Amino acid sequence: MRVQRFTVGLGVLLVVAVLFTAFYFQLYRVGTSNDRAIAVMLKSSNVRSDFWQTVRDGAEAAAKGSGVRLEIMGSLQDTDAATQVRLLEDVLIRRPEALVVAPIEDAGVAAMLDRIREAGIKLVVMDTPMQLDFDAVTVSSDHTEAGRQAGGVAVKEAADAPRVAVLSDFASSGVSAERVKGIREAIEPYGDSYAGTFYGENSEDKAYAAAERLVSNEPGVNAIIALNESAALGAAKALEETGKRNSVKLIAFDSSLYEIKLLEEGSLGAMIVQRPFNMGYLGVRAALKLIDGREVSRLTYIDSIVVTRDNMYSPENQKLLFPFR
Amino acid sequence: MLERFRDRRAFFPIFPLKSIQSSIAFAFSVLILLTVAATSLIAYRLSVSAVERNSKGYIREVINQVNTNIQSYVDNMENISLLAMTNKDVKYYISGNSFVGNGNEERRPYEKRISDLFQAILYTRKDIASIMVFGYNGRFVSDRRITTLNPNAKAEEQAWYKDARRASGKSVISAPHVQNILQDEYRWVVSLSRELKNSDGLTADGIFLVDLNLSVINDLLSQINLGKKGYVFIVDRSGNIVYHPQQQLIYSGLRSEKIAEVGSAPSGTAFKVEDDEGKRFYSVQDTSFGWKIVGVAYAGDLIGYRSTLINFLLITLGGVAVSLVISVLLSHRLSRPIRNLQRNMRKVEKGNFDVQAEVAQMNEIGQLARTFNMMVGQIKNLMQEIVVTHENKRKSELQLLQAQINPHFLYNTLDSIVWMAETKQHEEVVLMTSALAKLFRASITKEQELVPVRIEVEHITNYLLIQKMRYSSKLDYRLEIPDSILEYGTLKILLQPFVENAIYHGIRNKPGIGTIVVRGMETGEGIVFEVEDDGLGMTEEQLEKIWHAPDGERRSGGIGIRNVNERIQLYFGRSYGIAIRSELAEGTVVTIRIPKTKGTGEPDDAGQRAEGSAS
């Protein structure tokens, strides 16, 4: 009797040992690794959008070697909320383990994200601080801090007597609002330094018109901070034509080839540049951590960089301004 | 015995299992596990190091390939620069003491020829982005017919320009950078620049520039397969990263790279890094132009690594499983004879002494079984002996009882009393009756077997008195008992049978008066009684018959000598007993030897001691 119990005990011990080693060394995986997928929703999948293509590079760098497949998608236009909603519906059907999304600010998108979260898909929000009904893990540039950086440049350029006008896109834009907040925080201590925010939507022409109006109505303005590319281009054109290129400093957000040229020729005083590679990388890393059930900080900020004509060709900034692929 | 047993027990808690089999199995298992673990660990280490060695070799091979490729691109650029250097047109065109006038008409053909040359090179080499010459005289020519330089970028301020001037004649390789010297072209390139010397070899005329498309190197490096996570990166002489797939992460501090270790590693070597990123191998290779190409491969990715691990685990587990089963079987086999023995012992415990353990082998357990068998046999004999002894004792006691109240003796004595009464011999009647009464009281009332010599003497005196009155014409007697032995203990009615025999067999049939002498003596070892008669005596054969008379057969009215002897030996041990000397027509002397025993009041004690010494 005792002998049998002993033998059975040994057998059980052996089986346990085998199973333990099998799982410990992951000799046997639950499901194949190909089944594990993370969907990455970019705001724009346009190959000409350097920013989002770099986000994509970062995402791929993070996924490399992790055994997880990336499904990268996005609407062609970064304002096409309807397409993004449709793509999100697709995600809901395919049910990847996690979704890393740069949402377009839209009620339909927010509703879809809610549904995706309820379906048990881990969610990481990139780029845009979205007003959602729940606390999503967010990986984003610190737009307020970037605004402060821009404001700081304006203060320095104006020799501590700034009078700053902000050229924004839409009043409803969350990102722009945060940037404005940061700018105002930076210039607040210098008395009557804020000349107001003006809106040029996504149109260079409208921004041009707004800037032209601004410089004629507000002659005291010595710095314009353009919150997006079209605003920067429009304002640069207006300042050039009104001959105020030297008296009014132009500070822009984000980078494009046109902006780089403006920076090179001196029309643009500085650019506040995000790190899209890091955003994609950290977004996917956060998703991987969520899948593994590890702890993830709810909010990860990515710093921005002030690029001027002098440092634009430094090895580090070159990489940011001229994404290579 | 007990001490040693206690010592043994001290070792037992090492195997706190109850059965020997479990203990043996446990010990075997531990031994086997340790051995298997040790050997497989060593074997695993050996094979892992073999895999690592192979992997390092593989990485080195790959890095060598990369090196060769990049080197060939650089060599190619070098050759192009040599071509430019030796080209007469270029020389004249940028020469300080100009052969070529500044007039448009004069310059054009040179520019065209140089441009054509550069273009021809560019056609053959897809990897080259651009070829340019900047003369110190302000002239400039490129591979394009119409070249617009970026008005915001001055050639003199570019790193490649300055480095080439500093190197004065030697070619300089730049890190990958964005070439912004041409308007509206922002290409990632690697530049080779070189100062062009005048024919005198001392003064310089300008800077020559060849740009290599970075995509060529990028494609090359990204095609390299070093496992899922492995990658290649390049650092320059001063430790700056030339190329890294995750350069941006390194710049923003999200990732670190082992630049310092790479910097100090000599060319062609590899080293191992193990941190939270995982175990990986760095293989470093220097290029002739100052770059270090580094291949990084993750141990987990390498072919053979995982399979080695799996094989080892499987072999180890299989070995352990087999050996555990064997250990259980072995321990079962080894402990089986012990369990058999144990089973037999249980039977003995229950009282079955006919058990014989099977002796299969003459090993320790076989010997144990044999000893066990012998022990059981001996116990069985002893038990039988005890049974026989008890029976004898009981028999002798019965005989004793019969001797005490020998009915013939009683009838004869009573007849004598009646006869004496008839003849009005009142005094004799009184004497005899009282002697008879004393005789019976002495023998019956006392329950103890062991009595003082005094009582026995009294008894024999009374007996002899009665016999003397019956056989007055025939019997005479003497008692020679010293006072010193009176208080020693002796068996009850020890002497009567011999006196009785002497009367009935020695004296009764003898003509004339016979004398019986009863003597008591104290010797060194004990007490000796002698019953001597001068009767008929016995022949050798008769004497022999007395000793060998079959059990139960005895002469009428007497007790077998053998029984008395046995009785003495039962009580006092084998060294005591009876000896008979007899001579025909002379008489017989019976010598009875008993020990000196004091405690006459405690016969149990004496009895016990006697039994103890007898066993």
From TrEMBL, chain A:
Gene Ontology cellular-component annotations: cell envelope
Entry keywords, A to Z: Membrane, Signal, Transmembrane, Transmembrane helix
Periplasmic binding protein domain location: 38-295
Annotated localization: Cell envelope
Domain of life: Bacteria
Segments crossing the lipid bilayer: 6-27
Pfam families linked to this entry: Peripla_BP_4
Alphabetical list of InterPro entries matching this protein: Peripla_BP_I, SBP_2_dom
One MF term in the entry's GO annotations: carbohydrate binding
Family under the similarity heading: Belongs to the bacterial solute-binding protein 2 family.
Protein name as it appears in the record: Substrate-binding domain-containing protein
Naturally occurring in which organism (per UniProt): Cohnella thailandensis
Automatic annotation (TrEMBL), chain B:
Listed PROSITE patterns: HAMP, HIS_KIN
Keywords, sorted A to Z: ATP-binding, Cell membrane, Kinase, Membrane, Nucleotide-binding, Phosphoprotein, Transferase, Transmembrane, Transmembrane helix, Two-component regulatory system
Segments crossing the lipid bilayer: 20-44, 309-330
Record CDD domains: HAMP (cd06225), PDC1_HK_sensor (cd18773), PDC2_MCP_like (cd12912)
Subcellular location(s) per record: Cell membrane
Membrane topology per record: Multi-pass membrane protein
Region of interest: Disordered: 595-615
Source species of the chain: Cohnella thailandensis
Gene3D superfamilies for the chain: 6.10.340.10, Histidine kinase-like ATPase, C-terminal domain, PAS domain
Catalytic activity: ATP + protein L-histidine = ADP + protein N-phospho-L-histidine
HAMP domain sequence ranges: 332-384
GO molecular function: ATP binding; phosphorelay sensor kinase activity
EC number, UniProt record: 2.7.13.3
Cross-referenced SMART domains: HAMP (SM00304), HATPase_c (SM00387)
Keyword Phosphoprotein: yes
Protein name: histidine kinase
PANTHER family listed in its UniProt record: SENSOR HISTIDINE KINASE YPDA
